[in-house]
Amino acid sequence: MDRSQTTVEAPRLGEPYLLTPGPLTTSYAVKEAMLRDWGSWDGDFRAMTADMRKRLVDLLGEGSEDFDCVPMQGSGTFAVEAMLSSFIPRDGKALVLANGAYGKRAIETLEYLGRDNVVLDKGDYLPPRGKEVAQILADDPAITHVIAIHCETSSGILNPIEEVAEATSAAGRKLLVDSMSAFGAIELAPSQIRYEAMVSSANKCIEGVPGFGFILARNSELEAARGNCASISLDAHAQWVHMNKTGQWRFTPPTHVVAAFLEALRAHADEGGVAARGARYARNRDVLVAGMRELGFETLLADRWLSQIIVTFFCPADPNFVFDRFYGLMKDKGFIIYPGKLTVVDSFRVGCIGQMDENVMRQVVAAASQSLVEMGVKSAEPPQAALDERAKLAA
Ligand SMILES: *Cc1c(COP(=O)(O)O)cnc(C)c1O
């Protein structure tokens, strides 16, 4: 079946759409795949794990031959921590490119791990540029690794990963990518973009349910990672060796989540893979942004930096607009939106990922319009301070 020609299905049981960047709205088939039990040691489940690992490596596209997949129990952050603690040697030094909450979390993780680090902090949403990275690496030969966030989900900015990868490899350093909210919808082919390892998780663009993350890394890095990690459960090298030897996870795997994820991977392939998934999300974003702008809303980011994953809108200046009320009114209409994470101005976010298409996004815009009427908000225009803030982006 060519699912790209079909519309996505509405959630059953009167559930609201989750316009959030994971957990997100999944298909009924994905949920249904969880309606049986698997023995973690059994051959059937071992085959499922092997199939999943192979499919994930293949999703990387051209240049994936040197890569292997290490699934890791827990939420996405566990997989990020496994990557950082396993691949950065204890005497290594990391440069973190931060422009939001997930960059900050990477720094915090390195602090916990006791790994030396420096930060290029671009604030709430400005992108790290290749030139800046090149300069920092030239000035500090002790830096061994660069850590980049592919799509920084806190603002929705799509960071210029090509530039960063180029600067990093030109300086002979290693790149680790948090592609949590981008993988599966935005290409990250190793033949185009040089990196040593990346992480993502089950409940983002592949549209599975939460329960594990996965590292996709070069075999040479996985080999060299031996002894780096000070945590037994997060040791990517140990998980990799054990999985390749026995076909099993070292500790209880999230069996039902893996079953659901395999169904999600099949649907992803049926839809047309990374390009088609990314294109659907881009249409979702385009319909959403155009409709919201018609109501007077403005996006935090200029079009150039808008990812197809999640969009940040400024809260309207109209004093009748109260975010908590807006949230409740949207929920009453079947849509769960997401509060903003900016420090300077009030904002909220709307996710474009999950089992939703442009028809759903039109309903989202209609629900927003109706909610404004119910609150007595005449215009959704943002305050001048927000526009001033945004002008910095263009500068
Ligand atoms: C979702 C996400 C994570 C992981 O968050 P968890 O809550 O641990 O799943 C990490 N980085 C980015 C960019 C994300 O979007």
Q: Characterize the biggest β-sheet.
A: 7 strands, mixed
Q: What percent strand?
A: 15-25%
H/E element string? EHHEHEHEHEEEHEEEHHHHEHEEEHH
Q: What's the level 1 CATH class of the largest domain?
A: Alpha Beta
Instruction: Give helix % range.
Output: 40-55%
Global Rg: 21 Å
Mean pLDDT: 95
* CATH-defined topology of the largest domain: Aspartate Aminotransferase, domain 2
Strand order of the largest sheet: 2-10-9-8-5-3-4
Please identify the structural class as seen in this structure: alpha/beta
CATH architecture of the largest domain: 3-Layer(aba) Sandwich
Shape field: globular
Number of helical runs? Answer: 13
Per CATH, the superfamily of the largest domain is Type I PLP-dependent aspartate aminotransferase-like (Major domain)
Number of domains: 2
Can you tell me the residue ranges where pLDDT is under 50 for at least 5 consecutive residues?
1-6
